[in-house]
## 1
Amino acid sequence: MKKIFFTILSVLCAAALILPAAAAELTFRDVPANAWYYDDVKTAVEEGLVNGRSADAFCPDENMTAAEAVKLAACMNEVRTAGKVTLTNGDPWYAPYVEYAKKTGIITEDYAWNDPITRADYMAIFSRALPEGNYVEVNAIPDGGLPDVAADAPLAAEIYKLARAGIVQGDENRNINPANPIRRCEVAAILTRMMHPEKRVSFWRTPNTVRAQDYVGKWSDRTSQRASMTIMSSAEYPYYDVRILWGNGANSTGEWAMKASFDEETGMLSYKNGTMAYLNTDANGVTARDEKWADAEGFFFIGTDGIMTWEDSREEKSTAFRLEYTEVPAPMPEELVENYFKVIGGIQPGSAGSSLKQAKAAGSVLSFAYMNELWAADTEALRANLLTAWNSLTADEQAAFDGSFISVLTQMRDAWADWEANQGPFMDAGVGDMMMHLMPLRSSQLSWDVLTGNTLTMGNSDGSETPTGDIFVGEWTADRASITITPSEDGYLCHVRWASSAAACSEWDYFCWFDGEALASVENGTRKDLVYGSDGQVAKTTVVFTDGAAAFRFNDDGKLTWIDFKEYPGNENKLVFDRVG
């Protein structure tokens, strides 16, 4: 393909429109490294799509004539359709390109060939320069959505075609400025995106199509292959911890870290006070941090094509990132049997040394969950594999697991709450050092919650007929507590309220899915304690936790039971609810 691009270059040079520049590096004095178009100009020059006006000047703000635009479009079309450029100059020099463009439908009219071409006319020409399949939509922009291009404006269809394909995006306010002459820097950007679909831009913010949980997981940069990202829910509600690593050498890695929050209206994950540092490792393996800044602002956004883009006020290269979600496979059933179910099932409560066995088993399972990155694993596959693994156990093995599971959960809950007071059994069991390393890590805490929470709700019941998820929908009440369950697009929203007094109450909120037996929530449950003033308005709100795991089930009497496993493990019938009405 690069050979074909340089064929275009030779044609352009023959027309004396431009002078060639070295492809190895960009040396134009008028294209600074921090310019928004730097990468586009570099790519376009290296591949022969455009070149400088001289060896050291690109002239990014100069306009392009209609004749130059049509020549570019004609050559691009011939490369894509015939595999090479056969067009040559005529009299006037642009005549053969105009004739070709008319014949192939790229243009349908004549222009003032030696005058600067407007952005609208340029976009119209290039909306037909490639075969139709080359304009795949990545931005779901409604007609009239661009601020300065009405749905019935001249050339609106052509402009929207390029914008929806991510080839043009307008200024910071998404204005296309259709009447302005197009500049050479803008031409470079459009040409690069035309020929490189992976460089097209997902910029349209469509409210309510992106959820906060869509960001959680592991991501990698599709262009550099050297960048990776992790996003996980923070221990500080309502934030998300973001970390980006980019290897810029054998012994040096760039690290960006942010505490971001989700905007329901825009669908963006935005942040302030983002940090950047280089992690430099010397010959002895010692890593030192070279802090660069701690005041960056920016955001992440997942486009309609599933690609995440990044814009950062301090990082000039942030807009070049195209991040793809990296699926983390769930452990296979046989791995879950050997490293989870049989480990906890082998504790044998009441036997000699069972307390040390329990601590060792808890440490082993935490390590298993952490090493398998279950916080980012395919939850649907994990739940299916858990159930397959469970059903492969004998009745005695299932009973052995059930006999120890809640005790292990309780021990781990206490250890996370107060390590100093509860570290003894882990130290005595020889897993204390490992636990001290893993327990502060947010990824290990979330991985543990995902594994154990999905175990609690995986549906390993007596096999009796279960209700559909919608049977839970409605209002429920019990003494001073109430539950409201409503359906959402991908599951169910469950709101619990319990009045501790006339002036105070607690509220729990969960996003749940139906697992065949229960409405289940893993890690996303929140609890808030509210205190009311004398005027009846909320005077104080305290967030107690943001990582509750809950289940809502029917008991044998057909009443609703609720438990948050973070607070009440093993005490599922603490509250029983009757349906209102």
Note: The chain has four domains: 2-199, 212-326, 333-456, 469-579.
## 2
Amino acid sequence: MATEDTVRIGIVLVGLFALVFWRIARSRAAKCGAIALAVYFILVVATKLGSPGWVTASLLALFLLLGLMTMVFLIMQAYNAVRHKKRN
């Protein structure tokens, strides 16, 4: 019973964090990073509850893809910042 309550509280907290961060964040990197963080927390919960292997593998693949997308968006922001700095 305590584990189920902890999982519910964790899911609600992650949902609230994602909702607030999604409304505040302006860049794609921040939004993608927030989604990756939420998927990571869901992945942790899924492994603790003993979900089937395909669920864990799918969440892990999604987490890795979102992490790579976050890195790409960060590199794009850095490139654009350097490019605009050279023009001015």
Note: The longest helix spans residues 53-87.
## 3
Amino acid sequence: MKSQALQPRLALFVLTRALFVLAITMLAGATTPGINGKIAFSFDATGQIYTINPDGTGLFQLTDVNGSAYSPDWSPDGRRIAFSFDDDTHGGIAIINADGTDFHDLTPTGLHAQPAFTPDGHHLVYECVDCSGGDGIFLMRDDASDFPGLRLTTNPFPGEGDSNPEVSPDGKTVTFVRHQVDGELQALFAVDIDGTNERQVVPYTFEVAIKHDWAPDGGHIALTLYGDSPDRHSPEVATIRPDGSDLRILTRYREGKVVTPVGSYSPDGRWIAFRKRTPGTFGLWVMSPDGGNRKLIANFPFAPRFIDWGPKPANDTRDNSEAATIGNQTALVSEAVISGPNATLSPTSLTFSTQVIGTTSAAKTVTLKNTGTAILTISSIAITGINAGDFAQTHNCGSSLATGASCSISVRFKPTALGTRTATLSISDNAAGSPQKVPLSGIGTTAKLSPVSLSFSTQAIGTTSPVKTVTLTNVGTTSLTITSIAVTGTNVGDFAQTHTCGSSLAAGASCSISVKFKPTASGTRIAALSITDNAAGSPQKVSLSGTGALGTVVTLAPTSLSFSCFFTCFRFCHWSCTPPQTVSLTDAGSATLYITDITTTGLFSQTNNCGTSLGAKQSCNITVSAHPPNQCGTYTGAVAINDTGTGSPQKVALTEKACP
């Protein structure tokens, strides 16, 4: 009866969700591009957002927040801008009119960032850093009346995030950047607007920058790639189709380490805005989608970031020909926009992985740079805020920084209590906006996982790896209630787990979780081991990774060996066995064979010269020795080779006859 009672409610939920998504996608036509409007961007040096006309005139400071504002996104009607900001209390999302009036903080608590409007202009996609269930992309109304809204993604890597969502022009797809390995690897992913059908668009090897943008016709995505740069400091602007095909590199500015991050397509689809650095200045430039016809809009002494190009609103007084003017070949915006010492911090916030109470995290680094025209005098660098005792910092900044110089501040997290812990890295100096602040956050927990990541060796498709073990320990003083232990994430079907944990774990007790890898496809395969419990930071996660490889044919010659052992007495009694014998292992395929281990069972041992891999058509030798038993009889064993070949582990049957 209970399940029958739930059926109408479940049907209503499914219908409501479907209508909600349909309403967003049906209104996509309202965002059809028109005349090009203003370009919005942020300066890290001032911590504010600015707008400028596409002909380089009309530079206007839009925001005046106590902290830093960044990541602007225009509404489809060109009247409003959604953006991220950090202040003394939280990292939030706000909306402001294009003239700088009517500021609304949509998320007065927590950590939220990188909003983007949907085509209907009434919803936002954004990153929620500290929402229940972990970091991910959410969809909510533009007035936050349904906050946090519908969860679209969950990052499977502990302590990592999904960021910078963008919505396709038809309103059906959300693209976003997925981070792993302390944010050092970034790939572009996509998910349907209802949170289903998640897929990877470009691989992690491309190392995409966080900012990307859809072409107004939905045919291409503009993005910045670091993977094509040997020093990861000279990224290149590229375009790619939403299915990951037709990659085109548009810029080649390697010389002089000129940085060219992408910004935004123009509303008419004829231009891509980007930033180009030359010695002593940063230029806001545009080019056609094929990489040609490049024009300078304006030069600045500091880098314009998170560039977003809006449509011309109905109340724009410029005529269409004036608004359509692109570029100003003589533009040189006064470098007096920001003068004197200027303190720039990167990154502007730090989020630590869930950490066991009383243990210290790995360090995260903040770079302080003087991007001004005078010496930056540093009075103090300290941790302040609610949970200041949970964070610690060290630095090499000294008491001053010359123009253009930088220094590093290392921050560690050591929680003293359960739950979300927050503080602020505060730098007091003689620059405008002092003290400059970096919000800090992390979660303290009593559920300890060791290790926090598992990386499997290359494994042949369809074959199963040896087991790797994760230990879950309850370091708290009360029982840990375990709701579920499961594999989640992108390639969930490639990993499997078993465990000894039961439904609860007493204080101080531990249990084991065994994980195996059985790839279903070639290439990098990722997932997460997710433990849902009543500890803070639940679900706790262990990142899983491995590489699937096309299996190769392995031959063994011979496939069995027989030995004899004799017990003789002449003056004294002793056992003697026939000499060692050799098995030849050959990679008979066309791909490299990766060898995990070679072992024996029974009264046998082996030595080999095979190493950890064997090239196609190459061979190696395994020498097997028999050891005497305690009494006469027939004994069996085997040589087992665990590798990426088909049928792994391959085996050689061993027989020993004592007293034949």
Note: DSSP finds two helices and 54 strands in the chain.
## 4
Amino acid sequence: MENTQEQITQACLCELQRMVIRQANQIEDLKMEMTQLAEELSAVKDQLGKVAGEITAKVAALEAAIAAAGVVNANVEAALADVKTAAQLLDDMNPDPVV
């Protein structure tokens, strides 16, 4: 009877050890997935920063061209306001660092 009890205890311990190993492997997989996700998010943030700079430059060029033309049409003013709003929405997706 004592031998049977020892066998049951050993079987339980072996199963617990397998479970711990499985969980450790799952945790390691999650860590790798999180690292990859962080890298991808960083790349998107960098791309958004680049795009924001390009859009800001284009808006400034449009404003300069409109000012140089001297004649401003209400449709042009509305279109420029729409472009500035769109640029701001993109900028808001990439928050400025808090200093």
Note: The CA atoms of residues 52 and 89 lie 10 Å apart.
